[in-house]
Design brief:
Elements: E1 4-9, E2 12-16, E3 18-20, E4 26-27, E5 32-38, E6 40-46, E7 53-59, E8 76-80, E9 89-94, E10 108-115, E11 143-144, H1 152-157, E12 168-171, E13 180-183, E14 187-188, E15 198-199, E16 214-218, E17 221-225, E18 230-233, E19 237-240, H2 243-278, H3 281-284, E20 290-292, H4 294-300, E21 309-312, E22 316-321, E23 329-334, H5 339-353, E24 364-368, E25 375-379, H6 386-391, H7 401-421, E26 426-427, E27 436-438, E28 444-446, E29 453-454, E30 461-463, H8 475-480, E31 482-484, H9 485-501, E32 506-508, E33 514-516, H10 517-526, H11 541-557, H12 568-610
Parallel strand pairs: 20-24
Antiparallel strand pairs: 1-2, 1-10, 3-9, 4-11, 5-8, 5-10, 6-7, 6-9, 12-13, 14-15, 16-17, 18-19, 21-22, 22-23, 23-25, 24-25, 26-29, 27-28, 30-31, 32-33
Helix pairs in contact: 7-9, 7-12, 9-11, 11-12
Amino acid sequence: MDAAFDCYDKTGRITDYFTLGSGPFMFSHLRNIFTAIGCDTFAQVTNYELTYGAACLSLCTEYVNMSDGNPCSGSGCCQSSIPKGLKSLDISLFSFYNYTNVSDFNLCGFAFLVDKNSLKISDWPLSRKPKYGKDAYRTDIVIEWAVKNETCEQAKANASAYACGANANCTYPESGQGYRCLCNEGFEGNPYLQEGCQDVDECKDPERYPCHGRCKNTIGNYKCRCPLGMYGDGKKGCQGLGIITLIAAIGAAILLVIICVLLYMMCKKRKKDRNFRENGGMVLKHQRVRIFSEAELEKATKNYDDDQKLGEGGFGSVYRGVPADDVQVAVKKFKGVDKAQMNEEFQKEMGVVSQVNHKNVVKLLGLCLETKVPLLVYEFISNGTLSKHIHDKTSQLLASWSNRLRIASEIALALNYLHSLADPPIIHGDVKSVNILLDNNYTAKVADFGASVLISSDQTIIATKIQGTLGYLDPEYLMTGILTARSDVFSFGVVLVELLTGEKPNSSSSSGEKRNLIQHFISALETDNLFRILDFQAADEGEMDEIEAVAELAKGCLNSMGLNRPTMKEVSDELAKLKDLHQKSWAQQNSDETEYLLGESSQSFGKIARRPMTQSQTVIPLEIENFSDSI
């Protein structure tokens, strides 16, 4: 639409009125606005029928910056609304003072109807001059139209003439005359076509139809669900952690855990490698001894479960274990808070057991060098300790003198080997019935070398810290702190007394009074009351003589003066002789009985052969006990 103007120059007044006659369309009273520009301008607008009129006045005495932010409130610019249903326009304007007072910056005034959304005040400076014809200033306006002069209800009643197509809704225009068709919400297109409006896929236009989650199109609408792990209205915004964020967080946590585990495993492996090197593993792995891993022994002992514990001593605990090869072992785990002290005990015991190879000494199978203090792995001895069989009255092992004598001889053989045949010689230092183990065949094996010391071939005594078990300790060693091979002899003498009497070194009498077993034993021996204190019965006079001989030998071992005690070799030889004598005597006795039985059989054989064997007659087999020869 052209703009009307009113100007004044030296040639006189120039006025251009604008008139638009009545037509089928209406000017939108909501979208359009009547506007005037100028500093000495009065503008008015009426309809063709003169049933409506509106005006506005714009005055100013100095130049006004016509920026887009100008409110058009009457200074350089003014505005007025138009009525609903307006179809014709008659715009006129004039000035009060012919722009005389503002001619330096404003010679013309303009008036026009314009779309509110397209109006830019900055396009209308006060210094603007009019143009004519095709160059005239024009503005955009919004016009309305409607279908006939019917209401929606009247139009719907006549389906053939109803203008709205499918998915369209009848509505009233702003002017209130006739009706119009609009696409239903969620549809778009031409509502006046027969096929009507088409469904809008809102998911393809996120700018107009926001969705902060998972979008799903529906007929005339759409759904928006928040991502997994979040909640709220997906169209407005979701709260919480999304699935991607959640997965990323979980992934980061898992990665962190993996890194920590790897670092822990690396540190643990480095620690094991360091322990292995510090404990001499680089040298020991080239020797015949087997090297066990820490994990292997932990699995074998069920992580050192208390149910696997075989015993506990002053230097550590021993656990039963079954490695992958199904061979039972005994694992010695040193205890203590001082690593230097524990390593010293390990080195000492390792130095001893690595020199030993005897059938009556527990065999070292291997080591574990990955721990803070190395572990010793011994062969597993299944039948427990000699102490258990001595003091457990349900055990039948020591019911016969034969087994007692054999076990005593085997212990003496082992100690003699340590003193005389090992290189260098070894003093056990803690000989007691608890440290004597019995294997599957009830063969005695000396164990626990925690208190043992190595001595040179030219050395007979050694000063050491007093350690051992009261009741078995050499009194001379207790007084002087000097350990000798004769100290083991004294302790062995106590074991002999224990074997003979079945009592512990520190026991109580029947009345409950504490007594010294050694003194009690020697007193009984010297007063010919030996057989009263034995906890078994001799089979015959021959055994009684052997028992007395062993008792006298024990008495010699228990001499308070070490030099007056026999050597372990002398003790071993004496016990070996007694064992041989016992075997020969037992064999001779069996031979005499056999000859007697054979003689009787030869006289009655014919009668027995001719007489049928009755149901009550049985054959009694004779069993002969075999003793393993000593080394």
